[in-house]
Structure to design on (397 residues):
């Protein structure tokens, strides 16, 4: 699987595989990527598959097979007008479907569910060519992708049509479920899973050297440090107004943050990207964990999985208030303004207790992939019952 372990789609696939056979299909590469990034190791490996040098179908475990499609798709996301995009997308889908059909035949998948993990374009027409057709088509939405530049031109139109033609829509946040309901009445909130195996601090209590020398209290963030995700003004104002606190940022930075004035502030520390297995040791040393995310159409409905990781280790958490964060209100400090953000950081330190830490841990521990996938199964059962009964539901315009 050439998606980073820890991504939703990978975790869901392994959970499905506990009771089912699973074909995990990687995205085909595009011609543009094949030309421009042909020296990258990951692209070289994919090109070897396309040339027939390496196998396209690999058994990952007893119940999971991973398919690297032996095809190259055209880069069409910005093509205009709509009818030309649709024609080219039909061609791309046809190439993709031939590869999936080959794998289905070799694995004898005769009765299966098509679980589409937010693949808006490449999977729109797939079911026209798959034989046998899937018994159920589920669309999983976990980000408001249509606000991102890549999907802006055609994403909203195509995703709306895709949601309508699928049997059901599954969403990891209430906000995204409500968006799904605009297009498909069988839209369900299935929660978010989290793999807490890396956050068992009993395995390693050693404090990493690069954070051990930083003065406490430590206000920390772990994740991608990017302009489109984190509001730098909130971090800057908090660091200025709380000079006795240390602000520790862990994760890869984009160019915006690398060149920002935060690097010249004496109480702000950038420690870089860390190995996943070491993150718990860093998080354990935090006094407060934060997520001052940018408020935009692309983030307002997102379920930040890092919040569950913070809470699982009992940490006080201060975040920007969004629709998706409302469900955490009892266990997190939600801030609506920059000033409220740094005031609630102070409050989080002053009001912390062992009892609150235990409540946070208990709350987060319920957000497992097993629980999330069980909700998916229940939703699929409802959709299957409705399909088999032949009953109609309210038709969406």
């Amino acid at each position: 699987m050439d998606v980073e372990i820890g991504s939703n789609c990978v975790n869901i696939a392994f959970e499905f595989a506990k009771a089912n056979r699973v074909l995990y299909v990687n995205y085909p590469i595009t011609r543009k990527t094949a030309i421009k990034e042909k020296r990258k190791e990951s692209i070289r490996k994919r090109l070897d598959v396309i040339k027939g040098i390496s196998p396209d179908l690999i058994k990952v475990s007893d119940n999971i097979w991973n398919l690297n499609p032996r095809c190259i798709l055209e880069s069409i996301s910005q093509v205009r007008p709509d009818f030309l995009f649709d024609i080219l997308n039909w061609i791309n889908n046809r190439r993709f479907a031939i590869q999936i059909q080959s794998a289905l035949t070799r694995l004898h998948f005769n009765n299966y569910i098509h679980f589409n993990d937010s693949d808006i374009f490449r999977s729109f027409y797939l079911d026209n060519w798959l034989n046998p057709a899937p018994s159920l088509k589920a669309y999983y939405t976990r980000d408001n992708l249509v606000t991102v530049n890549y999907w802006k031109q055609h994403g909203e139109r195509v995703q709306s049509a895709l949601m309508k033609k699928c049997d059901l829509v599954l969403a990891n946040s209430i906000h995204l479920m409500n968006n799904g309901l605009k297009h498909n009445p069988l839209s369900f909130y299935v929660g978010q899973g989290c793999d807490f195996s890396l956050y068992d601090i009993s395995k390693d209590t050693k404090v990493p050297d690069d954070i051990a020398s930083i003065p406490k209290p430590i206000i920390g963030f772990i994740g991608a440090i990017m302009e489109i995700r984190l509001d730098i003004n909130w971090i800057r104002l908090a660091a200025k107004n709380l000079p006795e606190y240390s602000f520790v940022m862990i994760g890869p930075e984009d160019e915006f943050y690398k060149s920002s004035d935060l690097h010249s502030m004496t109480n702000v520390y950038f420690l870089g990207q860390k190995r996943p297995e070491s993150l718990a040791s860093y998080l354990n040393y935090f006094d407060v964990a934060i997520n001052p995310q940018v408020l935009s159409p692309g983030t307002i409905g997102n379920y930040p999985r890092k919040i569950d990781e913070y809470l699982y280790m009992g940490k006080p958490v201060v975040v920007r208030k969004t629709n998706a964060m409302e469900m955490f209100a009892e266990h997190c400090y939600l801030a609506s303004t920059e000033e409220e953000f740094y005031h609630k950081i102070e409050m989080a330190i002053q009001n912390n207790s062992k009892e609150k830490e235990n409540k946070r841990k208990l709350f987060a521990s319920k957000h497992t992939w097993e629980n999330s996938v069980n909700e998916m199964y229940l939703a699929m059962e409802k959709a299957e019952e409705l399909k088999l009964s032949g009953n109609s539901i309210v038709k969406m315009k």
About this structure: The two ends are 38 Å apart (CA to CA). The mean pLDDT is 93. DSSP finds 15 helices and 15 strands in the chain. The CA atoms of residues 21 and 63 lie 5 Å apart.
